[in-house]
Amino acid sequence: MHILNLLIALPLLAASAVATALPTVNEIVNHSNMITYYQGQDGRAQIKMTITDSQGRKRQRRLTILRIDDAKSDAVEGQAYLGGQKFYVYFHRPADVSKMAFLVWKHLDQDDDRWLYLPALDLVKRIAASDKRTSFVGSDFFYEDVSGRRLDEDTHELVETTKSYYVIKNTPKDAAGVEFSYYKMFIHKKSFIPVQVEYYDKAGVKYRVAKALGVKTIQGYPTVTRAAIENLKTGSTTVMEYSRVEYDIGLDDALFTERYLRKAPRKQLR
Amino acid sequence: MNEHRSNPLVRYSVDNPKIITWMMSLSTLLLILLALMPTLWPGTFNILNPLRVDTDPENMLSIDEPVRVFHNESKQTFTLRDMVVIGVVNPKHPEGVFNPASLQHIHELTEFAKTLTWPDPEHPGKQMGVVEVDILAPSVVDNIEQGGMGVVNFSWLMPKPPTTQERALAVREKAQRIPLLNGTVVSEDGLAIALYLPLTDKDLSYQVREALLEKIATWEGSGDEFHITGLPVAEDTFGVEMFYQMAISAPLAMLVIFLLLWWFFKKLSLVTAPMILAMVCSLTTMALLIISGNTIHIMSSMIPIFIMPIAVLDAIHILSDFFDEYQKRKDRRETILYVMQHLFTPMLFTTLTTMAGFASLLMTPIPPVQTFGLFISIGVFLAWFWTIIFIPAFIMFIPEEKLANFGHQTDDAQDTGLMSRLLSASGQSIYRHARWVLIGTGIAMVVGLYGISQININDNPIKWFDTDHPIRVADKVLNEHFGGTYLAYLELAPGESTNTLAAYAQGMQQRIKTQGNRLAEEGIPNSDPVFEQLAEQAVSAVSTAQNKTGLLAVLDDYINKQLDSVTDEMFDAWDEAQLFVDSERQRDETFKQPEVLRYISGLQTYLASLDVVGKSSSVADVVKTVYRELLMGKDDAFRIPDSANAVAQTLITYQNSHRPQDLWHFVTPDYRKATVLVQLTSGDNQDMAYVEAQVKRYFQDNPPPIALSHRWFGLTYINVIWQDKMVAGMAVALAGSFVVVLVMMIVLFRSFLWGLLAMIPLTVTVWVIYGVIGLIGKDYDMPVAVLSALSLGLAVDYAIHFLSRSRQLQREHGHWRDTIAYVFAEPARAITRNAIVVGCGFLPLLAAPLVPYQTVGIFIAAILLLAGIASLLILPALITLLEPYLFRKKVGG
Q: How many beta carbons lie within 10 A of that of residue B554, not counting itself?
């Protein structure tokens, strides 16, 4: 459901093997995490982002996201897939923010590095990113929804197993650092795609819902092609539609550096 | 006594007092029941209207009033809500609230405020109460600052309460660097903090306030002072005190009237009759108000206290006459029929004029004032109706022997009572010094005219509360520390474009050329041929397109077709072409254009130079603040960047925050409308009107770079509009009621001269009273305005009684010299008693906790007492001088 659920980690055979035995909570969240954020060694997608506010007013953005993983494996066993990642986010539209770019280096053991390129100001800026639950370019997605939340930040609990879903309740270990008290994931049993994620505030009221609205298998990887997050408190909804999704394209690690912010790799972003 | 000349209705009630009494009791009970049933048993009587209270000052204007419609639309457009404001100060700490303990409380209070939501019973699944996402408080707003070498840091201003004094001061320092927070959340003097809690519905403010007070009570003695205010709180409080007014002032008025009547007439049983009347009339009028679906509003809540003194007016005349006549006849039936016969016409006319005076309020464009006027009119009519049938009926219940010692035992001429002696002496003295009375009146009028020229038209709903009221105290404290708590919004929007499509297309051709050249220089392959093609397409599209949007759509379609099939070498060039078309579309995003934002900034600088403006905020402040921090936080970078793209990129950076929606309070997502939030330090209408006029002049003297329309909204502004309407409406109502009453007088006296004469005392009265208002510097506000029109109808009563009795007596006595002695006996006593009873009847309004009620009380009492005095002074003086003209025809007839 998240922006970068780009690649499938496992060949389908392995996936079905896991599905036969009843998995543990850790296996479920691990698998789901891999499917959502780590499929393939790298990936690319064009995104059409539509933000609709409570009054039905729409804003559209078009961007491209590139991703590359540090880990060279997609194996869930022993969390071999888990590692740092780099993201390159490039804006096409609207015209006045075109060529704007973000670079994110996601680390598992420290705060992420984040850079921002503002072409009209001819400026590359490092952004302190201690808090990842801030809006991603004014949408209802958080940076954390784009790059993923670390599994060890929450305790996970399998609260229910329905016909199609594992329902996982995730409670933050550091409650002060986040705005939710817990969130519930409805993870599809076969694909391990979190089809719905519901966030509950400190008063126990559901205030934020993420949904996978469309899934396609691309290059063998189950891929969310339409995702939405609704903020029930502001009444705003953001829908992201993914197109031209590609995995394992052999992106050069060097693209994910400050230097390429000013000099966008046009070919890869097309 | 001729039985046949008496009114049949009166005769019927004298003969059937029981039936009349039952009729009145039953009809009153029935109406009260109809009014209360839907409230006492909700849901059972759905066709009936329940009691509804309305404390919303917005309702001073009708719901479809353009300024109100615009206000509500704009509130929605910019998601602005009514707010509870909590001002926190700590006079005991040298740094005010910027110490760990106070900030801990503020943090805790904010967290607590977030929980003040409840499931909305009308919208299942939705919450109502405090809107968490729009709360303004140190712990929930974003800070933007330098985070070390080349790093910009976006984070919560106060994620958790600081533990040391140093960190507490750091919070202040950070907040004061952010224009949107300084003077709003953190006071400019660095001592106070204000929390803003937006509500889903302002009706919840009472609930929220109560919860907050409970929480705050736990910190008693900490030195922190919490002042809860904000318009919704003021309104709710007003509602509570309105009922207090009705529950205290109205019964108090009853008591005062009762005591005065008792003192005048000495007979308890007789005096109860007018009291019963007053009760019946106020209760039935209020019942009718509720049954007809009207709300209890600041105006309509005053209905009982108006009805009460007016309802007893006619009864006093009857009793007063009865008092004077009874001993002559010693027969209650004969006496009451006699009294009713010669009082019937003047009572009918005084009732009609009073009704006309109140009904004239229907001419004002203020719905609550209309309702007020209409229902008092109805109440006055009811009072008259019940008076003429119930008072005679009631008298019939009193056994003759109990009346034995009632009333004047002696002849008028030898009356020894103080009032009688005084009146009789003044009658003689006025006859001798008629000229001096009129000269004195003339001087009073001249002074009054000067006073009227000094009248200051102004109102301020916060000042409706007494100065020591918590709302006023909170208001004072907050406006001392902050940029002002009275909010007005200036909405800006591009004016109609005067550019033709052809002119636009010509400009675009130029830009296509420039951009094509630039791209070629940058080395984008094939940009020359692609942009040439684009230029050609643009030329042919102009002929078919209706407007700019159509033209760009045609070009966009064309480019998309190319992009679907182009080769790799051509892709970038066509992509740039599409980008160009999109940027053409964005030229309409007015409030991203640097020159427009600079204009707004200039306007804000000008606003800040006005005394009554504490602060203003706009999207320009957001852009400047973020731009400064992007450029290393240098003060000289606190400006609007030079291109619309730079503005857009600054704003999208700003929206990477916890609260991206904050931007939409200042500008719409299409950047076609923007607001400037203006914080005024005073809620006086004249101050708002001043700011409005100054801004208008600013726009004239400094034309914006593109045509911009500006329009105000916000409650502070709405108050100005209804005040304007009130002043204009009252002038019409005053003129209208003057003409109507004058015509009535001419009809009543069948003489133009007499009609005119009847108008003189009340004209002098209103004239002088308004002169006094001007002289003492009392603002001409809502209650004062309302009083002008209605007082005409009320004050003319004395003149009617005086003149009609004068004419009757003149017929009997022939010469005014003789007549005046009789006029200054019983008729003058009735007028004096009336003026005292009714005038004093309004004085209990002074006990009301709300200033408008006090104003009404003091002024209406003054008007009635002065009108009584004026009638007794000016009318006899004029008659003395005009006797030949006034009685010319009568002598023969």
A: 18
Q: Which of residues 446-485 of B touch A (CB under 8 A)?
A: none
| pLDDT at residue number B457 | 87
pLDDT per residue as tens digits for the range A30-70:
999 999 999 999 999 999 999 999 999 999 999 999 999 99
- Helix/strand/coil (H, E, C) string of B698-754? HHHHCCCCCCEEEEEECHHHHHHHHHHHHHHHHHHHHHHHHHHHHHHHHHHHCCHHH
Residue A177: both structure tokens together: 């650092």
Mean pLDDT of chain B: 88
**Between chains, do A126 and B151 touch, taking CB under 8 Å as contact?**
yes
Write out pLDDT tens, residues B589-599. 999 999 999 99
- Give the distance from residue B150's alpha carbon to the nearest chain A alpha carbon, in angstroms: 6
CATH class of the domain defined by A24-269: mainly beta
Give the Cβ contact number of residue B609 at 10 Å. Answer: 9
Q: How many helices and strands in chain A, by DSSP H and E?
A: 5, 13
Spatial distance between the Cα atoms of B673 and B482, rounded to a whole number of angstroms: 27
Which residue is closest to A203 within chain B, CA to CA?
Answer: B115
Of A127, A137, A201, the CB nearest to B652: A137
Residue B671 backbone dihedrals phi, psi, to 5 degrees: 55, 30
- Quote the strand ranges of B69-192, DSSP E: 83-89, 117-119, 127-129, 142-146, 151-156
Decide if B196 contacts B183 (C-beta within 8 A): no
As a residue count, chain A comes to 270
pLDDT(B416) > 70: no
Min Cα distance B87 → chain A (Å) is 25
pLDDT score, position B796: 87
Chain B residue closest in CA terms to A51:
B669
Whether pLDDT at B893 is above 50:
no
**Structure tokens given for B686:** 């004249």
* Packed helices B619-630 and B594-608: angle between N→C axes, nearest 10 degrees: 110
Once rounded to an integer, what is the mean pLDDT over residues A84-101?
94
Strands (E), B420-478: none
Q: Determine contact: B127 vs chain A, CB below 8 A.
A: yes
User: pLDDT category, B792, cuts 50, 70, 90?
Assistant: confident
Judged by phi (left if over 0) then psi (alpha if -120 to 50, else beta), residue B816 lies in: alpha
Per-residue pLDDT averaged across B570-582, rounded?
A: 91
Chain A nearest-CA residue for B662: A138
Separation in Å, CA of B154 to nearest CA in chain A: 7
The answer to whether the CB atoms of A270 and B571 lie below 8 A apart is: yes
- Lowest pLDDT segment from B186-195, B536-545, B620-629: B536-545
CA distance B504 to B509: 9
List chain B residues with CB under 8 Å of A139. Answer: 660
pLDDT tens digits, residue range A115-168? Answer: 999 999 999 999 886 788 999 999 999 999 988 999 999 999 999 999 999 999
> Do the Cβ atoms of B650 and B630 come closer than 8 Å?
yes
- For residue A170, give Cα distances in angstroms to A175, A179, B262: 12, 13, 79
Find the residue in A nearest to B154 (Cα): A128
Closest C-alpha to A3, from A233, A251, A262, A210:
A210
| B301 Cβ contact list (under 8 Å, min separation 6) | B242, B243, B245, B246
Residue B410 has pLDDT above 70, yes or no: no
Q: Is the pLDDT of residue A218 over 90?
A: yes
- Shortest distance, CA A156 to any CA of chain B (angstroms): 26
For the four alpha carbons of B371, B377, B382 and B387, in that order, the dihedral sign comes to positive
How far is it, in rounded angstroms, from Cα B892 to Cα B25?
Answer: 49
Q: Does B164 touch chain A (CB under 8 A)?
A: no
Q: In sequence order, what DSSP letters do the residues of A156-216 get, joined into one string?
A: EEEEEE-SSEEEEEEEESSGGGSS-SEEEEEEETTT--EEEEEEE-TTS-EEEEEEEEEEE
